[in-house]
Amino acid sequence: MSSQSIDVEFLGRSIRVSCPDKNSSDLYYTADVLNKRLKELKEKTGAYNIEQLIFITALNICHELELEKQKSVHCIKHIKSRMLVLTEMIDTALNKE
Question: Hey, how many other C-beta atoms are within 10 angstroms of the C-beta on 83?
Fold first, then answer.
């Protein structure tokens, strides 16, 4: 798989990253989302230390990711329990015949 170097910008600073050719549009989109979040945090807090803004944004994103993982685990458990109930209902119905 070939890759290319792409320049993305965060708070006016350009960073070059390597990216597989087929993922370049995804990278640009994700970089834009991150840049918007950094700008929002900068406006909200008034902080100008880019490193601090990046760390706070990274912590927020990690927290959101962990919450989504917990939701996914909960959904999977719920689906499994519903599948067990349905399996029991089907087994009961088949055994009656």
Answer: 10
43 and 6 Cβ atoms separated by less than 8 Å? no
d(CA 65, CA 78): 20
Fold of 5-95: Double Stranded RNA Binding Domain (3.30.160)
Residue at token pair 């050719």: 21
Whole-model pTM? 0.73
List the structure tokens of 38. Answer: 């950094």
Read off the pLDDT of residues 68-83 as tens digits, 9 standing for 90 and up: 999 999 999 999 999 9
Asked if 3 contacts 21 with a C-beta cutoff of 8 angstroms, the reply is yes
Q: Which stretches of 46-96 are DSSP H helices?
A: 50-96
